[in-house]
Amino acid sequence: MDERVHAEVRRIADEIGTMEIRGAAAIAEAAARALRSQATDSETTDPEAFKSELRAAARMLYETRPTAVSLPNALRYVLRGMSSTTVEGLRQDVVQSADDFCARLERAQADLGQVGANRLRDGDTIMTHCHSTDVFACVEAAVEQGKHIEAIVKETRPRLQGHITAEALHEMGVPVTLIVDSAARRYLNDVDHVLVGADAIAADGSVINKIGTSGLAVNARDRGAPIMVAAQTLKLHPGTMTGHTVDIEMRDTEEIIDDETLAELGNPTVKNPAFDVTPPRYVDAIVTERGQFPPESIVILMRELFGEGTTEPWAEP
């Protein structure tokens, strides 16, 4: 454990790693606020030591969820704001950058919701997978416009994030039908839009999202149900060309099966990937706070926002 990293940062890192904090926007906000906490609590009087502390905190946060690109994008935003030459100046730089980031994040989701709501019509039925606050923003905006929306919600094993989605949609007044994941194809004929979030989007428009998204997209295309991805620009992955170059997080096998049951089955190898990659040909539109885009043109927006590439500002010089 790096002693330079303060307890509040370690707590937040643990909550991100154990998925107590989940959802790309929530993870990004938590990471930004963790760096803010590190900066405000730092007692060093040396500017270089201060920056080293912030980089160490950022590395700890980054290593918790390698696939969720919103996390490193949040860290980049905050760390790149450090330009002062004194500790107090650097502290203010981090506080200001973290506050600006969180304010932009809040506005971005509301703006995205309005863009996504424009694709939903009164009387539409959507199908969801996993749990996405960007998806909620689209549905909430549509409901506020007076549209009647219904939802078929996949439970999303093994962690059952679909239950969170079902509860949140119910609270919005959206009628919900909860189904097991394997029943999705059966109900796609009743769906006007498949609406999912994203943890990362590659330059070619590939979508990295909760495992099962890719299979749902293939089935949706076969059934003629358009698939819309709701993702803030924070989810764009500036370090990739295709989704298959993204590091896919492998979760603990205990989320799937306990040791006793595993032994009864003869101890087979167990794999628990958290995400999969949906090729751009199965995606109809990517909805962001900057507007909606066909997946093949997302690289233009990515270059506008992030340039041709990025460095890792948490790396030690």
From TrEMBL:
Role according to the record: Catalyzes the isomerization of ribose 1,5-bisphosphate (R15P) to ribulose 1,5-bisphosphate (RuBP).
Family: Belongs to the eIF-2B alpha/beta/delta subunits family. R15P isomerase subfamily.
Signal peptide: none
Binding positions (substrate): R22, G23, A24, A25, R65, N209, K210, K235
Protein keywords: Carbohydrate metabolism, Initiation factor, Isomerase, Protein biosynthesis
BP GO annotations: L-methionine salvage from methylthioadenosine; pentose catabolic process
HAMAP family, per the entry: R15P_isomerase
Organism: Haloferax mediterranei (strain ATCC 33500 / DSM 1411 / JCM 8866 / NBRC 14739 / NCIMB 2177 / R-4) (Halobacterium mediterranei)
Protein name: Ribose 1,5-bisphosphate isomerase
The protein's Enzyme Commission number: 5.3.1.29
